[in-house]
Structure formats: structure tokens, C-alpha cells
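Exercise: predict the fold of this chain.
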Amino acid sequence: MTPKTLRECREALGFSQSAFAAELAVSRETYRVWDSGRRPAPSQIVDRARLLVEHRNDQALLPLGVVALLIGVHVRTLRNAARDGRLAVTHNTRTTFRRLRARATPANARLFRQSYYGRKVRTQDRRSPLTWSMIPLDYGDRIRALRQSLGVSQARFAELVGPASKAVVY
């Protein structure tokens, strides 16, 4: 069941009013007015609070669009940070218009926001984006050899690889 109010979201996460206000990047006084019901909260704040409840696991790999909403930055900022190497991402095996999809954890995104957000990156420090030509042609053979050297099944290897998806293994 999805919480309908900010208070329900806050209680579901177990935050105090001050901590939840900080998580939503609003002042404590503003949040208290919304929490008490004296004023309605803006819809984007309620949506962000619901996302926080929905994605409680800080280590789950999420699409950059969802992570951007969770930490309150524009998705293009996260894409640029992933391209520059300021944000640690994992590329999904699925593509969009032949471009690899980047996924990040909320924990890594918060680390990016604390460390790099609002700072410029010099041109010489930028990394080149990951492309299909960078992926070795014998990628499948390398994965198979690694799995066999560990002596595990495909299903167990998928568990060990973790959030990269079983499609990588199979």
C-alpha cells in the first residue's frame, strides 16, 4: 500500500520531522506545516517522499531518472556525472537507441551530490563514454571461463554477480 500523505511516508521510514525535512531538502518549519496538515504539500514533494518509501534500499541499482528524483537533481546532471566518472554506475545489458543504460545506487548518488555536485569538471579530466566498441568480442567466452574457474552454476554465478542481471550470465 502506498502512503498518501507526507506523515505516512515519514512514519513508514521511521524518520523524525527534522530528518525527513533534511531528506526532502526543505526547511524543518516548512515541513512541520505540511506534516500537521495546515497546508498541502506540493505534489513533487509528495511524489519524492513516496519514492523514498518505495526505494528504501540504498544499495539497489535504479535507473538514473529514479535516482535523480530521489536525490533532487536533474537526470542530465547524473548522466554527465556518470560519463565523467564522478558517479559510479553499472551499465545494464539492455540498450536504448543502441546506448547502454546506466544504473546507480541511491548511496552512490548521494555521495556524488556531497562530493561533486555544483563543481565543474575540466575537459582533460572527462572520460570517454562507454560504447559497444569497448566491449570485447569474446565477452561471453570470458564470462563462461570465469564462471567455470569458480566452479559454480549459472544461477549461482548470477547471484554472485548481483544486480547486473541474469542476462549477463546466460
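Check your answer against the key: The chain has three domains: 1-54, 56-130, 139-169.
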